[in-house]
What we know:
It is a single chain. 15% of the residues lie in helices and 25% in strands. By secondary structure, it is α+β, with helices and mostly antiparallel strands. The chain has a five-stranded antiparallel sheet with strand order 1-2-3-4-5. Strand 3 (38-40) and strand 4 form a beta hairpin. The chain is globular and about 30 Å long.
Amino acid sequence: MCQHQPQCPPPESSDREAAHVVAHHPEQGWSLLCNGVLLFEDTGELLPDGRAIDPAQRRAQVAAA
């Protein structure tokens, strides 16, 4: 999916938010990353396989890293 060099992190990785933005809709509160992740302004995420990462869970992951 990603054509960037070096390639963007895959959606399964903990640094998936580092992928390039391919669509940005601040008026709706979301961005689509080139790895297929939907990133919401409240820091929640929707992964390409349908899993949802809620904002509180995401903050805990970042704090642990």
